[in-house]
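Standup notes, structure subgroup. Blocker cleared on the adenosine-5'-triphosphate input:
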Amino acid sequence: MELRNISKGFPGVIANRDISMSVERGTIHAIVGENGAGKSTLMKTLYGLHRPDSGTVAVHGQVVDFRSPSDAIEAGIGMVHQHFMLADNLTVLENIILGAEPAKAGVINAREAGRKIAELAKSLGVEIDVNSPVAELGVGQRQRVEILKVLYRGAKTLILDEPTAVLVPQEVDELFDNLRRLVAAGTTVLFISHKLDEVLAVSNRITVIRQGTTVGTVTPAEVTRRQLAEMMVGSDLPQPAPRTTQVREQVRLEVKNLTVARVGQRDLVRDVSLAVRSGEILGVAGVEGNGQFELCSALLGREHSTGTVAIDGNDVSRASVRERMNAGLAYVPFDRQREGLMLTSSLWENNLLGQEEKFTKFGFVNVGAARAACRTVIKRFGVLTPSEEVPAFALSGGNQQKLVVGRTMSMNPAVLLAAHPTRGIDVGAQAAVWEEVRQARDAGLAVLLVSADLDELLGLSDRVIVMFEGAIVAELLPREATPELLGTYMTGAKVGS
Ligand SMILES: Nc1ncnc2c1ncn2[C@@H]1O[C@H](COP(=O)(O)OP(=O)(O)OP(=O)(O)O)[C@@H](O)[C@H]1O
Ligand SMILES: [Mg+2]
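Run returned:
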């Protein structure tokens, strides 16, 4: 595949500027670059979602002109997006065949489709029950469904936009095994990632994009992680700050015997007790789907639970979501698009979410103050945008995340529930977000940090707990928590500490 001199602009932004690159068949080709560098835009062009303003795409030496994704699919190119696009209320089978049903005389042959999917799943090396509703699947499984959906349409080139952002290390390994199988059988994989270690481990070639244009293509053997990062940002990276601890006596979040039950299922959260002190970051490790989400939902008051929750000594077990927020609780959600943003609203309106009261007087929003507050967040967290007036969908994925984190931090909470706070954020900006969290912690914030990124979890936390099947199965200090040891607890191979 060859991209020649591709340019693409949006109002006020040039997302891609004269990009040329070629991708060899049967290879894994990674695309890296800072948030907003233009990676997703380039891949969407390749997938027929955007038409380039200028430049051409050639597949097997033939210049193509995709007017829509169906043209790209016709040419054997499929894409799994940064934000998944499955229909929750349908089954795996229905999702996969949606829009591509093998219909005979208008009748869908579900059995034949099921057989074909089973075959594809085998070639990918995964197991999946095609009849389960997508709503019941964890993130890793959803992703497999997305990949199967693309393969089902006959894709020979698979584009994956940040496939590993949502996965824990074990799932990442599985995904890469799956991809290697596909590539060995002649499929080409293009993937975007901010995790440079895995990029170096899995790719055949790596193309770096900076500010809308390519700065080079390298092989993993030629560069170190640091050199790759410096190619991305175009300058030296700051050295990480030395570890310090500021944990104080005062307990800010206290949870006792919290259980979230589900009729006919095992408890989603099982008898969890924990305390987070002022100046402390408590890390929560675990494979997604082991109760972390329900624990946060229960702490927020969005999920019915038994047991008690206290913030700064005040029992909020029966308090509403709003009352808990007013007591000092703030939340960086698991899924920025589902829980954190109104995609078609402006950035400043999005920045108001959860703090409307602060900007409202006599029933009127002080728009000037709300805009100014948003500009402050944009500046402090380096959100790349032409202004606070643009709709949230116009931000790149990582910049959406920065806005959500920035909004939450700017509320000056007493207790922060942070779920994957730097998910999709590039290495440079990630260091900046970590620094913000450290500073707030040092000033007395208590943080419950759920993260799939072990560097983040071990680098930030003062203590780490592991959740498995809804219960806390281990508590460790970061220095004793090697990735291997955490892995054994996370998969339930070892219980108790
Ligand atoms: N639909 C859109 N409307 C307006 N601007 C857009 C749109 N999509 C992308 N942009 C802008 O184009 C630029 C490149 O965005 P893109 O999503 O390609 O970045 P990215 O490299 O994928 O970043 P990230 O790592 O954060 O996902 C950004 O400035 C973004 O705000
Ligand atoms: Mg992107």
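Discussed briefly. The chain has a mean pLDDT of 91.
Next: hand off to the docking folks.
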